[in-house]
Each structure stands twice: as structure tokens, then as C-alpha cells.
């Protein structure tokens, strides 16, 4: 057994567990529950270890939330402990899941799987029935805060950072929602951090829409770093 491997967690929950929300354990980069939560020094923002490793593979990387330098990484032991003590109601299937197991649960959640199949079938049908005329618009987007329309991805980033920097309103990311793997119902509590970390580039330049969301996260991180 690999001594460095993360411990396996049971997804079963006890009725005595504290109830939490997905936003409490949401990584601002991948927008999913933390995996191996890790602090950045000196700012102490928390991210998944793998997300930070991807960021640090590029020289001059900074914290996606506050843009401070990254001096070192520290395991967020207290956060990991809290994730083993709290349950979260899955926003898709409405089942209580151990916080530490939520990311794995999402990979096999029946409701998530159904949604992905429906999106895939809908995309394929549109391609066959209507050709390019019926393909979803992935070139321009509407601001989820003020409904400003026809914004390129880079313009959306600039617009939101200029006019909505202080907003804490939960909104759906219009870029992610337009993708084949996106969930148009998911509202992020950290939209600006997510926008700055993943969408500082034009998607059509980098994206292969046939790839899954994990592969696209890797490309998105690498592309965003070029625009820091």
C-alpha cells in the first residue's frame, strides 16, 4: 500500500453528524469539494492539493483569490478533519453524503449521470438534426449579475471584475453552463474567484468539446495561467 495515498472514506453518514453546505468546502479553482485540502502561505486560502500543484507547475503562480505570492503549502488538517465530521446534502440527488466523499460521489451520482447523458444526447441530436445552426453559443456570454450580453470570455472576466467585484451573490457560471459537461443549475458562491482561475482565455482557442470535464479542467488551468 502506498503510504502517501489518501485514506479511503465511506460515504455513509450518521444522524449525529453536523450538516454543512457544498460551498463551505468548495475549491475556488475546480469548484468541487476539496481533495487533500491545502493552505497557501502567507494568505492561508485553501484549495485542493492537485489544483495547487497544477498552478505551481507554471513560474510566477499566485493565489487565484487574492493574487498574493505562494511561498509554501501546508496541509489543511483542520479542514480535512471537519470534512470527516460533516455531511452535505447532494444538490443533485438530495442524499446526505460525507463531505470528504462528496467529490467521489459526484462521479457516480445517478442524478449527475442522468444529466450528463441528457446533455450529450441533446447535443448529438442538435448536431444531426440542425447542423451548426442549432449548436449552443459558446462564443459570447451573458453576465449572471446584470444580464449584460454578448461578452466574449475575456470580456466577461473584465466586466465582472470591474462592475461586480464586491458581489457575493450565488450565480451560475455561464461559461461552464454552456459546455457539454456543465450543470446549468449549479450556483457558485465564489463565482469571481472561479472566473479568474478558469476563464481568463477564449474557450474556442483551447477546448476540445469531446473531452470530459477533468481533462478540460487541466487545460483551463494551464490556459488561464498564461493570462496572469
Automatic annotation (TrEMBL):
<dbReference type="InterPro" id="IPR001841">
    <property type="entry name" value="Znf_RING"/>
</dbReference>
<keyword id="KW-0863">Zinc-finger</keyword>
<dbReference type="Pfam" id="PF05605">
    <property type="entry name" value="zf-Di19"/>
</dbReference>
<protein>
    <recommendedName>
        <fullName>RING-type E3 ubiquitin transferase</fullName>
    </recommendedName>
</protein>
<keyword id="KW-0862">Zinc</keyword>
<dbReference type="GO" id="GO:0008270">
    <property type="term" value="F:zinc ion binding"/>
</dbReference>
<dbReference type="GO" id="GO:0000209">
    <property type="term" value="P:protein polyubiquitination"/>
</dbReference>
<dbReference type="Pfam" id="PF13923">
    <property type="entry name" value="zf-C3HC4_2"/>
</dbReference>
<dbReference type="InterPro" id="IPR003903">
    <property type="entry name" value="UIM_dom"/>
</dbReference>
<dbReference type="InterPro" id="IPR013087">
    <property type="entry name" value="Znf_C2H2_type"/>
</dbReference>
<dbReference type="InterPro" id="IPR051438">
    <property type="entry name" value="RNF_E3_ubiq-protein_ligase"/>
</dbReference>
<dbReference type="InterPro" id="IPR017907">
    <property type="entry name" value="Znf_RING_CS"/>
</dbReference>
<dbReference type="GO" id="GO:0061630">
    <property type="term" value="F:ubiquitin protein ligase activity"/>
</dbReference>
<keyword id="KW-0479">Metal-binding</keyword>
<feature type="domain" description="RING-type">
    <location>
        <begin position="27"/>
        <end position="67"/>
    </location>
</feature>
<dbReference type="GO" id="GO:0006511">
    <property type="term" value="P:ubiquitin-dependent protein catabolic process"/>
</dbReference>
<dbReference type="InterPro" id="IPR008598">
    <property type="entry name" value="Di19_Zn-bd"/>
</dbReference>
<feature type="domain" description="C2H2-type">
    <location>
        <begin position="141"/>
        <end position="169"/>
    </location>
</feature>
<dbReference type="InterPro" id="IPR013083">
    <property type="entry name" value="Znf_RING/FYVE/PHD"/>
</dbReference>
Amino acid at each position: 500500500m502506498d503510504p502517501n495515498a489518501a485514506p479511503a472514506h465511506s460515504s455513509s453518514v450518521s444522524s449525529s453528524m453536523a450538516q454543512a453546505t457544498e460551498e463551505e468546502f468548495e475549491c475556488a479553482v475546480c469548484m468541487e469539494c476539496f481533495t487533500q485540502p491545502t493552505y497557501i502561505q502567507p494568505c492561508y486560502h485553501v484549495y485542493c492539493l492537485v489544483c495547487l500543484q497544477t498552478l505551481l507547475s507554471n513560474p510566477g503562480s499566485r493565489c487565484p483569490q487574492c493574487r498574493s505570492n505562494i511561498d509554501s503549502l501546508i496541509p489543511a488538517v483542520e479542514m480535512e478533519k471537519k470534512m470527516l465530521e460533516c455531511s452535505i446534502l447532494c444538490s443533485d440527488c438530495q442524499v446526505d453524503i460525507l463531505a470528504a466523499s462528496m467529490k467521489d460521489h459526484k462521479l457516480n451520482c445517478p442524478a449527475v449521470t442522468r444529466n450528463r447523458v441528457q446533455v450529450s444526447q441533446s447535443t448529438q441530436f442538435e448536431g444531426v438534426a440542425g447542423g451548426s445552426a442549432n449548436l449552443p453559443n459558446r462564443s459570447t456570454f451573458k453576465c449572471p449579475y446584470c444580464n449584460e450580453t454578448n461578452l466574449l470570455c475575456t470580456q466577461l472576466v473584465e466586466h465582472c471584475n470591474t462592475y461586480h467585484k464586491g458581489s457575493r451573490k450565488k450565480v451560475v457560471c455561464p461559461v461552464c453552463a454552456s459546455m457539454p459537461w456543465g450543470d446549468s443549475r449549479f450556483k457558485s458562491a465564489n463565482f469571481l474567484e472561479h472566473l479568474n482561475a478558469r476563464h481568463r482565455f477564449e474557450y474556442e482557442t483551447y477546448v476540445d468539446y469531446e473531452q470530459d470535464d477533468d481533462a478540460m479542467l487541466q487545460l483551463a488551468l494551464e490556459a488561464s495561467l498564461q493570462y496572469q
